[in-house]
Design brief:
Layout (H helix, E strand, L loop, with lengths): L16 E5 L5 H4 L4 E3 L3 E5 L7 E5 L5 E7 L5 E7 L8 H17 L8 E6 L8 E6 L2 E6 L2 H4 L2 H12 L3 E5 L3 H7 L6 E5 L6 E5 L2 E5 L14 H8 L6 E5 L5 H9 L4 E6 L2 H13 L5 E5 L2 H10 L4 E6 L11 H18 E11 L6 H15 L4 E6 L18 E7 L1
Helix pairs in contact: 2-4, 6-7, 9-10, 10-11
């Protein structure tokens, strides 16, 4: 598994081949969907190399879009431009990144003491590229082979727009990397790496972030506003935060929300240590962090007859494909059923799914099943998604992966 070197690619940004679709398969791409699957391809006119620029055409030769080729992936072409005059050259990538940065400025998310997602893949018309800014540092995650082969060009654009102290590369999920033919180990790309955790501000709180070994790119920026929303319901309550990672929900509920006490649980020793440090950083002495398995902890608390005024569930991805959705929904049902059983009357359930294959409708139906089995109403107060710096393209709704439900359980 190798990633093509940037020098192997033509600088012109013009196509080396044309990918021809099967009859009656063009409609999604006229609608600007960026993924051309192998099952839609009838033929390739030319011999493109990995990462080459190609045009997409209908079966009768009409131009549709311009994109990047990957013969290893089920996504054979990722589309970036929908007119034949656009070159996918260095200037193109610079302009796309500049537009993404401008959106964050418009959203008021350009504070160098804070953190934000600067590029959100399909949501910013940059399929296969994720960039998070943590203070003076950038964490880059590449999920497409053709983007990997343009990494130096992309880093040039990021450096020009944001002038970071350092740019760090974080590897894609192992399964995705294999499917794309990616071989990109974590490493420093530009500048200097931080000597230890860096500290960011979020809604008046302070968090330490490990950019070299933390999950995702170091922190769950997508839950930024959901943590604040949950904290608004925490006052005076005993809170249980499951799958707490570095303590985002726990600290928000304790330090900003006025929770009476918080029990935070994560199976990772490193995550639990980060959560303790973040609680101390914010003076949240009423947060207790335990390193334990979430399912075992929920079972044990249930057996002990414990009750909480709020339960937060933010588990890892349970489904990585539509084929795994049924199993994922069973897992979500189990943890939510246990959580509802732990809630005192009038308690608040904050429950999340980051499984993109599990739709919001799927998740709501799962909660309906929980209410039926528990014999208790579940009143959905808010059904939320990722923060605004994680935009979703209306042409690629697959990019909407996060559901966060805040519900009352009488």
């Amino acid at each position: 598994m190798t990633t093509p070197a940037p020098s192997a690619l033509p600088a012109s940004g013009l196509p080396s081949a044309t990918v021809v679709l099967k009859p009656q398969r063009a409609r999604p791409f006229f609608g600007r969907h960026p993924w051309v699957l192998d099952s839609a391809v009838a033929a390739v006119d030319g011999t493109p190399d990995d990462g080459d620029v190609v045009d997409l055409a209908t079966h009768d030769g009409r131009f549709i879009a311009r994109g990047l080729w990957n013969p290893r992936s089920r996504i054979r072409v990722r589309l970036y431009a929908f007119d034949a005059a656009t070159k996918l050259d260095a200037e193109f990538w610079r302009q796309r990144i500049a537009a993404a940065v401008a959106l964050r400025k418009h959203l008021g998310l350009d504070d160098r003491a804070a953190a934000a997602r600067v590029v959100n893949s399909e949501g910013d018309d940059l399929s296969g590229l994720i960039v998070d800014r943590y203070g003076e540092y950038l964490a880059v995650q590449v999920t497409a082979l053709a983007i990997a082969s343009r990494l130096e060009t992309i880093c040039d654009a990021l450096a020009a727009e944001l002038n970071p102290r350092g740019i760090l590369l974080r590897g894609a999920e192992r399964g995705l990397a294999k499917l794309e033919g990616l071989a990109l180990p974590d490493r420093l790309i530009r500048g200097a790496a931080p000597e230890g955790p860096i500290f960011i501000h979020e809604h008046g709180l302070k968090f330490g972030v490990d950019l070299t070994e933390g999950q995702k790119t170091g922190y769950y920026l997508d839950q930024r506003d959901n943590r604040q929303a949950a904290a608004r319901h925490a006052r005076g309550r005993r809170v249980l935060d499951m799958f707490c990672y570095s303590g985002g929900f726990a600290v928000a509920c304790a330090a900003a929300g006025g929770a009476r006490s918080v029990l935070a649980v994560d199976s990772s020793a490193r995550a639990a240590a980060l959560a303790r440090e973040n609680a101390a950083l914010n003076g949240a002495a009423n947060v207790v962090v335990e390193e334990a398995d979430a399912f075992e902890t929920l079972d044990a608390l249930t057996a002990a007859g414990e009750r909480f005024g709020m339960v937060v569930l933010d588990p890892p991805k349970f489904a990585r494909s539509r084929a795994a959705v049924d199993d994922a929904l069973r897992a979500y049902h189990r943890i939510n059923r246990l959580a509802v059983g732990l809630l005192e009357p009038g308690g608040v359930l904050v429950t999340c799914s980051c499984s993109g294959s599990v739709t919001r409708e799927d998740f709501h139906h799962m909660l309906a099943g929980v209410a039926q089995r528990a014999g208790r109403p579940v009143q959905i107060l808010e059904s939320r998604g990722a923060a605004a710096d994680h935009p979703v393209s209306a042409s690629c709704l697959e990019g909407e992966y996060l559901t966060c439900v805040i519900a009352r359980v009488p």
